[in-house]
Write a sequence for this structure.
């Protein structure tokens, strides 16, 4: 299993490296340095918001679902956060908590619609997104709220050239990685996403991991919305839609090696995908590429990058246990016992033995 | 165990956020100045509970419509109304300067036309040695991207002057303030921000004036009880919301039955909406807050075999041509596209130490039926998405550059 | 009686919803029942219904086509720019547009099947590239509306007919396209397509050339988008925002019609009915005076409810029949059905790449 994930993630990181090298060369041709602090900061800032959304989206895609409502969750989160804070730093903890609670509730709704009502994730979250859009249009007439300066620091400051928001995003990525690789919920999520029928037959409860994934996705979208509120200084009902985060986050997730069919993927691959987008955008902006052409380049790069490892990833199958077999050495024991088992079954019944041979 | 995992994760996330917010270094943002500027949408007016309505601004713009602008009569992009001049001697210096332009986007024909005009203006100034180059970053309609663009310019741009067309008012304010802190002159145009730290803020009279012009035009030609359908592009954009806020108020006072719809500028949507309205009853007037899709609205009347409405559109060529063809009673309000020339010219004046208006209010006069022919002739051969008041007739490349519409 | 039962069944749920909505519209606005008005309603739905047909073929095969909207925009702008005011160019440009549409579909299909890139990604990339490319070529705004002869296709029709008074060309084109679609589903191609969506591995073992089958589905989808674009040029005129978001409307229409996202089951007429339902819904919201800000919310609720209803009822009915617990997809005696009763989390696709491969065996 480890070998599989390293493969696609390594490829993504390879593509990222290639993009950086090409980008650095191109940027140098217009007389700028790719590695200057301002440029690094631009790239990392561009990664933060999309990165948060993409982390959440990874969880959902691993569960073989999709979340198209993230854009509206982000806008709503920015508004709830900013209006609750209302310029007063003392309100920050409650504002953040309230925002995350609302987002968790939305994620719960998504998860329930997908698992209980059995509506496909695409449609369920599309519908929920539309409902949220209606709520946004009705309740808010434009930017609202005011984010106190203390909270704006999160979006505006950094440790050297590395923005605080990026550090937060990477820290959360570590947490989610831990969740996926070391906890039961994570393992169950992979199982449910890979094949829910087999998972169910294996005794895994198929609903809770998927619901948890949707809740986490909306939570991360909420965090992204709060980050945007911090950067903008206000909440905005269109901030999510401005960035096209739903489709872009899904693209970043797939670019990072996670299968749209669920069951296999990696957080670090997703972060790599987000980084590729950020580097691409940065290089194109520095070179003052026509904005219409930027979209063409993005489209081509998305398809090309995924194509690089798509064939490989699909053909290779995930080995059930690590390269050395099971930790308890079950594989070896089984192999060693094979002749004895064959002999025993032959002794039982010749007919059974021939059937067993055929299998 | 699962639930506690989630709680633990969330708790760690929250703690992480707070902890890291505490230990930061090198804040590139300073605490906001104690004087608070207007936080977003203005106070509601008396009659309609429209959050965007601002009586004071309404009255100011109403008055400005009748003021004769000062400045050269044949160069409307250099004219100004009721200006308070500001001294720019501190910025006076020789040599060609580098301009850095943070553009909100070129995602609609109005902005595309202005962008082409601005680039031709740039060529003139490069020729004369006032501006050496203009580096542009396009935010593609995203607040977050534009903030990053401005920060990039501050750090890496080597800019002598910042020109900013903000994507939205409140959200861009901190970034603009950061640009001001560099000590270089900052020019803001089109949509504004909630700070007056820029050297100048260039804009036509405003949305309320548009609303007053158009509403008065319709009210004069219709009777109380007549129906007017308002077609609006998007919610939440203040330059657009103010137009409707003013029009709605005046319609209500005049007894006109006005309903509004959001169309997203999609002609198919516009046609459907108008067709539905025509099916419900008589529609005597059409009010639009932007010219996109005007043709579709008119065609809905044609398809239904009804008489043309009284209509206000915009100075987009598609509407002007259809207006001429159908002979309907119309008015083309403008959001002076020539304002795209002014920022670079203002930059030139600033570095020359000349006085310029602090708030540079450009003239905004609608195209009336009498002026229609002149504008049509002047803009023959231009694409349908071109804007008649683009103000670039005396720029190099006229008319080919606009006819071919190659975005620079 | 049988028809009534079909109506209430999940297969017919969309038709029931359509009838309810149309009746509501007629109650709120009696003039709607006039043949002229009704024809205009169908004229409006025609572009959406045609792309729903295209999207149906793609979804049946277990894929997505997100590039339809951008293709419509691109075709509309191409029509505007190339035809100009020259009537003689109408037919050549029409042919060019159809060829271009087929080409886009071919590229979509080949990238999905030969490069094995998920169709979601391929069509997403195509959406970005198409729109950006066309906007760059035209400088963002089209030259203008093309000559009237071109626009008559979407706007005009046969006038002064005895009962109906006005029969738009769009309605005829829609009827023709739908007939073509139904015919295709009855042909071997249609059957193999459904089989491919249902169980790709079995279909491949049965000897089907899955890459060519899937590619043809994408070509059908793109050509449908082109036809829809031609109609929209007439109906709406040329503008860069024509066609925006139509792929999501198409997918919603198809799913409302009971087609399963993931392929393997669905009726083309139901997909078209889904398109009619969506437009009827918009009509109801327009006429009933629901505040414009709430419309999206109502739309979202109804979409979720409709899809959930057909899903839940379908599964309930299946539970009454002896359920087969095997994970392998078997084909029922009539239309191929999934043993969806036991899946607790919806799977998006049994795409030609074959999730079957990652299932333990």
């Amino acid at each position: 299993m480890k070998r599989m994930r390293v493969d696609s993630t390594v490829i993504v990181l390879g593509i990222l490296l290639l993009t950086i090298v090409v980008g650095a060369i191109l940027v140098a041709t217009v007389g700028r340095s790719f590695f200057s602090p301002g440029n690094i900061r631009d790239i990392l800032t561009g990664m933060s918001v999309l990165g948060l959304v993409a982390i959440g989206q990874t969880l959902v895609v691993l569960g073989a679902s999709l979340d198209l409502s993230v854009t509206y969750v982000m806008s709503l989160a920015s508004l709830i956060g900013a209006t609750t804070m209302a310029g007063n730093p003392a309100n920050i903890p409650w504002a953040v908590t309230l925002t995350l609670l609302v987002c968790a509730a939305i994620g719960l709704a998504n998860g329930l619609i997908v698992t209980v009502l059995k509506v496909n994730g695409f449609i369920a979250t599309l519908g929920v997104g539309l409902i949220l859009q209606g709520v946004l249009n009705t309740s808010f007439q434009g930017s609202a709220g005011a984010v106190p300066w203390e909270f704006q620091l999160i979006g505006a400051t950094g440790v050297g050239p590395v923005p605080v928001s990026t550090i937060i995003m990477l820290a959360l990525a570590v947490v989610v990685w831990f969740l996926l690789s070391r906890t039961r919920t994570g393992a169950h999520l992979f199982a449910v996403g890979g094949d829910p029928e087999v998972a169910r037959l294996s005794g895994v409860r198929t609903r809770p991991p998927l619901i948890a994934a949707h809740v986490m996705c909306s939570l991360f979208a909420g965090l992204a919305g709060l980050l945007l509120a911090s950067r903008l200084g206000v909440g905005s009902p269109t901030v999510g839609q401005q960035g096209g985060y739903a489709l872009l986050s899904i693209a970043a997730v797939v670019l990072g090696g996670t299968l749209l069919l669920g069951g296999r993927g990696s957080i670090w691959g997703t972060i790599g995908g987000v980084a590729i987008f950020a580097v691409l955008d940065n290089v194109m902006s520095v070179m003052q590429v026509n904005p219409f052409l930027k979209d063409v380049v993005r489209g081509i790069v998305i398809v090309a990058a995924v194509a690089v490892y798509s064939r490989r990833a699909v053909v290779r199958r995930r080995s059930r246990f690590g390269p050395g077999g099971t930790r308890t050495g079950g594989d070896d024991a089984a192999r060693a016992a094979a002749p004895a088992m064959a002999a025993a079954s032959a002794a039982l019944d010749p007919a059974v033995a021939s059937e067993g041979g055929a299998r | 165990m699962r639930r506690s995992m989630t709680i633990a994760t969330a708790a760690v996330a929250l703690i992480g956020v707070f902890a890291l917010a505490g230990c930061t270094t090198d804040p590139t943002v300073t605490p906001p100045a104690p004087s608070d500027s207007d936080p977003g949408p203005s106070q509601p007016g008396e009659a309609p509970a429209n959050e965007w309505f601002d009586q004071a601004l309404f009255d100011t713009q109403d008055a400005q419509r009748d003021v004769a602008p000062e400045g050269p009569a044949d160069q409307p992009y250099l004219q100004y109304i009721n200006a308070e001049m500001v001294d720019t001697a501190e910025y006076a210096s020789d040599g060609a300067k580098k301009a850095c332009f943070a553009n909100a986007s070129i995602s609609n024909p109005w902005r595309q036309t202005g962008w082409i005009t601005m680039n031709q203006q740039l060529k003139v100034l490069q020729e004369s040695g006032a501006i050496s180059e203009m580096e542009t970053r396009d935010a593609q309609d995203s607040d977050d991207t534009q903030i990053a663009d401005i920060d990039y310019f501050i750090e890496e741009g080597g800019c002598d002057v910042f020109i900013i067309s903000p994507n939205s008012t409140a959200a861009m304010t901190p970034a603009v303030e950061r640009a001001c802190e560099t000590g270089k002159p900052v020019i803001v145009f089109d949509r504004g921000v909630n700070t007056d730290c820029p050297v100048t803020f260039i804009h036509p009279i405003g949305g309320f004036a548009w609303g007053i012009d158009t509403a008065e035009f319709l009210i004069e030609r219709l009777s109380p009880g007549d129906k007017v359908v308002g077609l609006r592009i998007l919610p939440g954009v203040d330059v657009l919301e103010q137009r409707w806020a003013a029009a709605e108020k005046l319609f209500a006072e005049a007894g006109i039955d006005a309903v509004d719809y959001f169309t997203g500028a999609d002609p198919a949507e516009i046609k459907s909406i108008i067709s539905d309205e025509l099916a419900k009853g008589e529609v005597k007037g059409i009010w639009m807050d932007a010219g996109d899709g005007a043709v579709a609205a008119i065609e809905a009347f044609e398809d239904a075999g009804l008489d043309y409405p009284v209509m206000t559109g915009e100075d987009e060529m598609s509407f002007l041509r259809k207006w001429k063809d159908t002979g309907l009673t119309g008015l083309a309000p403008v959001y002076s596209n020539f304002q795209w020339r002014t920022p670079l010219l203002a930059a030139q004046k600033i570095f020359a130490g000349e006085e310029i208006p602090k708030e540079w209010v450009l003239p905004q006069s609608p195209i009336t039926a009498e002026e229609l022919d002149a504008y049509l002739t002047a803009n023959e051969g231009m694409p349908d998405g071109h804007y008649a008041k683009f103000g670039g007739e005396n720029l190099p490349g006229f008319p080919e550059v606009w006819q071919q519409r190659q975005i620079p | 009686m049988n028809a009534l039962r079909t109506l209430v069944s999940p297969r017919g749920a969309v038709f029931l919803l359509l009838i309810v909505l149309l009746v509501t519209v007629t109650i709120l606005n009696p003039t709607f029942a006039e043949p002229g008005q009704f024809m205009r309603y169908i004229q409006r739905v025609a572009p959406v219904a045609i792309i729903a047909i295209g999207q149906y073929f793609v979804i049946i095969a277990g894929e997505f086509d997100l590039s339809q909207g951008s293709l419509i925009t691109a075709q509309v702008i191409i029509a505007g720019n190339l035809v100009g005011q020259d009537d003689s160019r109408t037919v050549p440009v029409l042919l060019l547009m159809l060829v271009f549409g087929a080409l886009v579909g071919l590229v979509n299909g080949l990238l999905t099947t030969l490069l094995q890139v998920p169709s979601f990604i391929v069509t997403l990339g195509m959406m970005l590239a198409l729109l950006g490319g066309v906007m760059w070529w035209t400088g963002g705004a089209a030259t203008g509306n093309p000559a009237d002869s071109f626009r008559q296709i979407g706007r005009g029709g046969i006038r002064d007919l005895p009962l109906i008074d006005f029969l738009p060309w769009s309605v005829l084109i829609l009827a023709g396209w739908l007939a073509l679609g139904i015919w295709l589903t009855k042909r071997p191609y249609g059957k193999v397509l459904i089989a491919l969506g249902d169980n790709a591995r079995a279909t491949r073992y049965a000897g089907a050339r899955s890459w060519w089958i899937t590619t043809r589905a994408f070509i059908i989808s793109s050509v449908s988008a082109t036809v829809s674009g031609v109609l929209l040029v007439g109906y709406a005129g040329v503008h860069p925002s024509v066609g925006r978001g139509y792929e999501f409307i198409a997918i919603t229409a198809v799913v409302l019609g009971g087609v399963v996202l993931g392929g393997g089951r669905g009726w083309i007429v139901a997909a078209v009915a889904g398109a009619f339902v969506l437009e009827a819904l918009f009509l109801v919201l327009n006429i009933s005076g629901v505040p414009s800000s709430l419309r999206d919310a109502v739309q979202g609720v109804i979409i979720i409810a409709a899809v959930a209803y057909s899903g839940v009822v379908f599964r309930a009915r299946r539970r009454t029949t002896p359920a087969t617990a095997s994970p392998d997809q078997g084909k029922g005696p009539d239309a191929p059905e999934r043993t969806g009763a036991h899946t607790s989390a919806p799977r998006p696709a049994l795409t030609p790449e074959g999730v079957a491969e990652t299932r333990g065996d």
Summary: Chain B has 13 helices and 13 strands. The longest strand of chain B covers residues 131-138.
